[in-house]
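hey can u check if this looks right to u? its 340 residues, i copy pasted from the old doc so theres a chance i mangled smth
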Amino acid sequence: MTDSATPQDTAAPAEGPVLPEETDGPAVEETHGPAVGETHGPAVGDSAAAAPEDGERRALRARRRRAAVRWSAAVVVCALAGTGTALAVTAQERTDLPGLATPKDGRYTFPALALPQLPTGKAVPKENTNRHAAELRALLLPTPQEAGGSLTPAAAPATGGSPSATPSLSPSSTASPASATASGTPSATGSPAAGRTNERVACDAMTAEWNDPGALRAMLLQYACRDAAVREWTAADGTRTQIRLLSFGSRAEAWPLFDRLHTQGALKDAPALRNGDTTGWDTVPGVELTTREVPGTPPATRVALLSAGDVTGVITMTNPRGVPTAAFQQVVTLQSDLLA
């Protein structure tokens, strides 16, 4: 019984132990370290999800950079265009710009005006008892660019002689640019091609243009007119301008001629002269001004009389279609500036 029992007891383990239940170590599921699905770091699925997000951020930054570059370029282009436009506008004369040109009102384009150089030791009129020390011809207003041709001053009358104390030349229509006075001093007449008529004439040369020339000639003799000069031109619009300057020994001797022409003077070609209106004119200090004109709008004949110390000036402008007001005021004002 004992022998047969021993084999049975020893053979019992053949049924096999239950290893999962009796094993002392940890089970496979409890092994240390990360499992296959729990490994540290991004998983394959996370990497695939993050990649599109990074691509979108890079694309957004690229778009922003391109937009910034485009806006910067636009600002630079606008700045350059504005600068170029400003330079183009300011570099041109206003009258050359379309739509901004000032309509022509008859004003002339004169060269830059400059007072003549005075002899050594001489002062300007207001510091020299209102006497002009400069050469009388140098005080004449220059010819404008619009002059279509210059006129030769009329010769002094053959009778009566010149009342001027200083011998003066009465040039003829064929006077040369280098003609000389009786004292041998050349007169700066210039040629019509140069647009200049700058003549020394006899004082009584002007009497032929006015009514009662005998009374004017007697006045010039009485007050001892010393010198006379004339400049004439005809503009392209047909306006003829004549400027005469007559020099005396003092203001007291020059004033009577100015007053006589203002109150009683009448041109032979325009006997119906009336007093003109100088309201609003920019008068020049030191120069007395009065104007006369024939009726009309605008008047076909306009005369300005100037009294500047020892010099009396007579400006006559004529045009059958009317003398432009702006041109008349311009000529009178500029000539007054040279006499002040």
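The longest helix spans residues 44-91.
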